[in-house]
Amino acid sequence: MTADEIAKKHRALLMKIVHHALEKGAVPSINLPSFPEELTAPGATFVTLEKQGRLRGCIGSLQAHQPLVQDLAQNAYRAGFKDPRFPPITAEELPDITSSISILSPPSQMLFQDEQDLLAQLVPDVDGLILQDGNRRATFLPQVWEQLPDPKQFLGHLKHKAGLAEDHWSPTLTAHRYHVVKVA
């Protein structure tokens, strides 16, 4: 089953897992045999939380390393209570929190000669990007293109997020692209 099919068929169940994690303030226990097979296969997810249209938490996995429903439960909890950029969500905030789930494709390494070549290969509104140089690494989901529609600006902000200068370039810089299916 494709990520699109999973998103359509299991949207309500996946959102219920996220809401349960936020309401309980804990990672929900997942009884894997009770879930459909497509949700127990390895999967990588991101959970994004917003409050009044502003980011309130966003945490996820870049590689599938555990069952999709387990990954989702952990990332929902972490987005609400462990994102180091924000204080933990309070019970009073819950009615104002909206959540979205992204199911990620496996990342694929990009081959490029220089920054211009990398920029030319990026597909706005489609590509998520993982940028790494040495021990500095950061990612932007494809949704970030909404705020940063220019590829040079997108790449510059991603470098900054990784702790690099916006004009940083190095022969050891690597980039991986991925795509997402938004569940909600």
Describe the 3D structure.
By secondary structure, the protein is of the alpha+beta class. The chain folds into 2 domains: 3-104, Glycoprotein, Type 4 Pilin (2-Layer Sandwich); 108-179, Hypothetical protein ph0010, domain 2 (Dna Ligase, domain 1), CATH 3.30.1490. The chain has helices at residues 3-24, 37-40, 68-81, 115-121, 151-161, and strands at residues 44-51, 54-60, 97-104, 108-109, 128-133, 136-140, 174-178, 180-182. Strand 5 (128-133) and strand 6 form a beta hairpin. The chain is globular, with a radius of gyration of 17 Å. The two termini are 18 Å apart. The model has no long low-confidence stretch (mean pLDDT 95).
Main features:
single chain; 184 residues; alpha+beta; Glycoprotein, Type 4 Pilin; Dna Ligase, domain 1; 2 domains; 5 helices; 32% helix; 24% strand; globular
Quick overview of this protein structure:
The chain has 184 residues and is α+β, with helices and mostly antiparallel strands. 32% of the residues lie in helices and 24% in strands. A four-stranded antiparallel sheet has the order 2-1-3-8, covered by helices on one side. The chain has a four-stranded antiparallel sheet with strand order 4-7-5-6, with helices on one face.
